[in-house]
Design brief:
Number of strands: 5
Structural class: alpha+beta
Distance between the termini: 84 Å
Number of domains: 2
Largest sheet: 3 strands, antiparallel
Strand content: 5-15%
Order of helices and strands: EEEEEHH
Strand order of the largest sheet: 3-2-4
Helix content: 40-55%
């Protein structure tokens, strides 16, 4: 997401480890992309060469789902537990609840981070608008002062006696 900069747009490229283009966005202000990953190094690039005069502030977040979640890792805890099937069932329920809370908490953190990025972009736009309104208000004030001075001068010139008096 582009937070600040002229036009609020940027090009985005995502390349696979094989060098294939997976995503290409041209002059977008924000975007969300989901990619099935394979082993290797991915390359992503934010390109602002079309607007070399203005710099951009960009927020991005890389979310990796299912990292390190092998089926074996979740079953390791079972070998330490001995007891009845009822106990195993309760532990499985607890583990499922904990994983559910963890997933929801992670999703909440992601949403809050995204909302902070939106807030930062909107604040930059508001500050830019504030500066623009102040500038044009000062220009308007200057024009009004000049016009009032010209009107006073013109009004005085109407009442001046331009005849030469003979004494």
């Amino acid at each position: 997401q582009v937070l600040d900069g002229a036009g609020l747009d940027v090009d985005f490229h995502l390349l696979s480890p094989k060098g294939e283009t997976l995503v290409f966005d041209e002059r977008k202000s924000d975007g969300v992309h989901t990619v099935e990953a394979e082993d290797g190094d991915y390359m992503f690039c934010f390109d602002n060469t079309f607007s070399t005069i203005s710099e951009k502030v960009i927020f991005f977040e890389l979310i990796l789902d299912n990292m390190g979640e092998d089926g074996q890792d979740q079953e390791d805890w079972k070998k330490y537990v001995t007891g009845t099937d009822l106990l195993d069932m309760k532990l499985e329920d607890i583990l499922e609840s904990i994983n559910s809370v963890k997933a929801r908490l992670s999703k909440s953190v992601q949403i809050q981070t995204l909302l902070r990025a939106f807030e930062a972009r909107d604040r930059n736009i508001q500050e830019s608008n504030f500066d623009r309104v102040n500038f044009w208000s000062m220009v308007n004030l200057g024009v009004m002062v000049v016009v009032s001075a010209v009107q006073v001068y013109m009004l005085k010139s109407l009442f001046e006696d331009k005849r030469k008096s003979r004494t």
